[in-house]
Specification:
By secondary structure, the protein is an alpha+beta fold. It has 18 helices and 22 strands. The protein has helices spanning about 55-65, 120-125, 125-130, 135-155, 195-205, 245-260, 275-280, 300, 310, 330-340, 370-380, 395-410, 460, 490-500, 505-520, 530-540, 570-575, 580-590; strands spanning about 20-30, 35-40, 45-50, 70-80, 90-105, 160, 180, 190, 210-220, 230-240, 270-275, 295, 315-320, 350-355, 360, 385-395, 425, 430-435, 440-445, 470-475, 480-485, 525-530. The strands form 5 sheets. Strands 6-9-10-22-21-20-17-11 form an 8-stranded mixed β-sheet, sandwiched between helices. The chain is globular, with a radius of gyration of 30 Å. The model has no long low-confidence stretch (mean pLDDT about 95).
């Protein structure tokens, strides 16, 4: 046997036992006539002792062990004189009497420790080494445990796990599809699923009633911290339900996982906020409600004072930063530069300080009297020592910029503690969003979302104000999941396609199989999908989903380890009837 125990299970009660361990050399150190080796496996670290006085030859061999050598050690468990309270095995050590080198290792390109000296690209290139680090391994262990618990919860509530196809029909409405050429059907392509949306609806038509799947999904989008080209959803669908049934079911799931992983009890119902209120108060459809600083509209108080920035603005909004009246000119200039960043897009920042003695200072003091500014601070319910930060412009862009400023102030003031969780439901989303470039409406969620019953009469007369039966679970400013009541009436679905600019022919070509299925008795149904990677990263306290995935891509969508994507041989391209436009590729590179 390579081992009789793991490197994480021995305790003082095992003293006197003869054991065999196997693993990787974490580090070694020589002290006088003793050599100490920390041996690591997935389960922990155990200290091995080689004594020159007992076995000089064995000790000499131990002195030549390098980091990450794979070794097997046999010896006796002994109480450790200098105990280490930082590790579970810190009260014992193994007095070695046998050493076998199973495999040697080159010097690793970075240290295999929790605080590694490897940069992101290097760690991704040698991901199999990075995965040896406790910090990364623990995330994957958490993912494993959460996956089992999710399955158990859903199984206990009557859900069936059903796998749906990975090679599907392309439906280019929304994010870009990854496409896969079909050798057996020249000139035709599969797509990788952005979600199992159509298949889970078909399972409801098939009478499966409650479906779930921890499903791989694919979107050809630009990447960021919480986005990868391939990701995993906890995908669910239910029949004969209304919105309240769905919210109750999956609020219960989220509460259960928080209790299971973090021992956090959410005893009260999660708050609910309409999309309109979320945008009005936070400028985001995924508000972080761990802290206040909600928006206050000041447009009516700012007009008519010959300050063109406010007079010409459609919207003037403020946040009140508590205790920040002492901000220096340099700090205020930093905030101004922050909101002027291209990705935020504000043209400038106005500030008002309510000093500790009640006096007021402002960057627009020459346009507004002290009584005017007091009216602003009064509406914002500012207290002495507080700072008002004000942006102006078109309503939606300004609210979004103010949201970024609010989050920045939340970070600066330490109000976004990763160990504090504030979930809520955002409901009543707009059904459609208008695109100026194409001059048509797009579905804010997807074409199969049902409008609210009371808004269906507005589909023709007031399309832009139709609300959707859609809902998102938001935690700490992150969209953890979302879903909607589905359209199950073929006539309403046809109407929806028409409003979204689909011709009958195009709708039939892309979604005909679903519409055909609906002719045979589709039940009322609804669904929701959680981002599994996001859920794990949130509970692990991470800023990125990357370290919850065993082999992730970098921000350019590349696998640094095996250098994918890569070019195909001409023979493969010929088999697939594909010709690569190398001239255009080179032109785009320039």
């Amino acid at each position: 046997m390579y081992r009789t125990k793991t490197c994480g299970e021995l305790r003082l009660a095992n003293a006197g036992e003869v054991v065999t361990l196997a693993g990787w050399v974490q580090r070694s150190r020589k002290l006088g006539g003793m050599t100490f080796v920390d041996l690591r496996d997935r389960y922990g670290i155990t200290q091995i002792v080689f004594n020159n006085e007992i076995n000089a030859e064995l000790c000499d061999r131990a002195n030549h062990l390098g980091r990450e050598f794979v070794i097997q050690v046999r010896g006796t468990v002994s109480e450790r004189q200098s105990k280490n309270a930082n590790i579970p095995t810190g009260e014992i050590e193994i007095i070695a009497n046998e050493l076998n080198i199973l495999n040697r290792s080159e010097v690793p390109p970075f240290t295999i420790e929790d605080n590694s000296d490897g940069g992101d690209d290097l760690r991704m290139q040698f991901r199999y080494l990075d995965l040896r680090r406790n910090a990364v391994r623990r995330n994957l262990e958490l993912r494993h445990r959460m996956g089992f618990e999710l399955r158990k919860y859903l199984n206990d509530h009557g859900f069936l796990e059903v796998e749906t196809p990975i090679l599907v029909k392309s439906t280019p409405e929304g994010a870009r599809d990854f496409v896969v050429p079909s050798r057996m059907n020249p000139g035709q392509f599969y797509a990788l699923p952005q979600s199992p949306q159509l298949y889970k609806q078909l399972l409801m038509v098939a009478g499966f009633d409650r479906y779930f799947q921890i499903a791989k999904c694919f979107r050809d989008e630009d990447l960021r911290a919480d986005r990868q080209p391939e990701f995993t959803q906890i995908d669910c669908e239910m029949s004969f339900v209304e919105q309240e049934d769905v919210l109750q079911m999956f609020e219960g799931l989220v509460k259960h996982i928080f209790k299971y992983v973090r021992d956090i009890d959410f005893t009260e119902p999660f708050p609910r906020m309409t999309w309109a209120d979320a945008m009005r108060l936070y400028g985001s459809d995924k508000p972080d409600i761990r802290f206040g600083m909600t928006f206050v509209e000041l447009k009516d108080l700012t007009e008519g004072h010959n300050f063109s920035v406010f007079d010409s603005a459609e919207y003037v909004g403020a946040i009140c930063a508590p205790g920040c009246a002492g901000y220096t000119r340099k700090q205020l200039d930093e905030l101004t530069d922050f909101v002027k960043r291209p990705q935020i897009g504000a043209k400038g920042l106005v500030w008002v300080k309510l000093e500790a003695d009640g006096s007021i200072k402002s960057s627009v003091g020459k346009f507004y009297s002290e009584d005017d500014l007091k009216a602003w601070t009064g509406r914002c319910e500012a207290k002495p020592g507080d700072l008002l930060l004000i942006l102006a412009g078109k309503t939606m862009p300004t609210r979004k910029a103010l949201n970024e400023l609010r989050l920045e102030m939340g970070n600066r003031l330490g109000l976004r503690d990763k160990n504090t969780f504030a979930p809520l439901w955002v409901i009543d989303f707009p059904m459609f969003e208008w695109d100026e470039e194409t001059q048509r409406y797009y579905a804010m969620h997807h074409p199969f979302t049902k409008p609210k019953d009371e808004d269906i009469p507005l589909l023709d007369s007031d399309t832009g104000n139709v609300r959707a039966n859609a809902y998102d679970m938001v935690v700490n400013g992150v969209e953890l999941g979302g879903g909607s009541i589905r359209i199950h009436d073929p006539k309403l679905q046809d109407k929806m396609f028409a409003l979204l600019g689909f011709t009958e022919e195009r709708a039939q070509a892309q979604f005909g199989f679903l519409m055909e299925a609906f002719k045979y008795g589709a039940p009322p149904h609804a669904g929701l999908a959680f981002g599994f990677d996001r859920f794990v990263s949130m509970l692990a306290g991470l800023d990125s989903i990357r370290d919850t995935i065993a082999f992730p891509k970098n921000n350019s969508g590349r696998d640094m380890m095996n250098d994918a994507p890569s070019a195909l041989d001409q023979e493969q391209l010929d088999e697939l009837y594909i010709k690569v436009d190398t001239e255009r590729i080179e032109k785009n590179k320039k």
